[in-house]
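Throughout our pipeline, every protein is held as a single compact record rather than as scattered files. Such a record has a labelled line for the sequence and another for the backbone structure tokens. This encoding replaces a full spatial description with a residue-level series of whole-number codes. For reference, a complete record is included directly beneath this paragraph.
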Amino acid sequence: MVKKVQELQSTLFQKEKMLETCTMHIKSYQRELEEKSAEIENLQNSLGKVSAKRDKLERHFRRLCRSAKSSNGLVLELSAIPRLFELIVEEAKEAASSFAGLLITSMQSAQWDLDAAACSIEPGIIYASPDHKRFAFESYVCHRMFSGFENENFYINGSLSSIMDPEKHRHECLLQFEDMRSMDPLELVSITPDCLFGRFCHRKYLHLVHEKMEECFFGHSQHRAQVLKGEHPRSRFYQSFLKFAKAVWLVHRLAFSFSPAVNIFQVRRNSEFHPDYMESVVQKIKMRDDNPNSHPKVGLTVTPGFCVGKAVLKCQVYLDDMVATE
């Protein structure tokens, strides 16, 4: 009997220990459940705020579009361009300058001849200062990244939604702009690498960074191989490219949320400088020729300009055959 009682006591003790352990687990699960519930509530609140902000932004754009028209239906001048669009374009210019700077640094590290590289982009330009040659590289990256801007999706696919249902397409572009603006581009393409923006990045990277350039920079072409497989490299170089790609994509999404859509323009080389729709990317320069009948000529378009009806956001150009005043 004593032995039996001892066995029962031992079993009871083990059961109590198990019960105690289970109770601790239950409390832990309850705490975790409470934390998850609080997290869900916070996310729902955030989603509500984002949705409200998105609706407010959409109503704001519609008011701007309505107010931007005069009684005869013509779009007003520069003041009619929403400030937000100007800011987004400025961000794209900064991203272009940053990525062009990274390209130049990579070329220097690979011991490239920068003068020859600049000349290959646009031969024969007479630069007012040697350091102005950086504008050739900014022109190069902008020209390639903004190529196809006039199409609703950069010709990535054959969609005609902007023609079939223009109101719906404008709405979707506005939502995409608002959703993407605060997102890390690497995070976005990591979640959905084959989304429209992801495919845009794949196409533009291959168009912008050719194979020989990549091999000189890194000693291999693994970035290109990954991109061709539909992947997105995690290198510093590619992440810098993604930031630039996102900036251009945001300009495009916002541009196509307008009615009518924003048009892009560039200026051909040797065109006469026209201050109404151009601005010089360098200010402290003058013409080499003092002939009063001579006019400055465009060497290259550095960043494109944009039109909303009759309103103009000027393109930035580098003027050829000028001299520095300081």
Notes: Confidence is low (pLDDT under 50) at residues 67-80. DSSP finds eleven helices and eight strands in the chain. Residues 2-67 form the longest helix (66 residues). Strands lie at 263-265, 278-280, 285-287, 297-303, 305-308, 311-313, 315-320, 322-324.
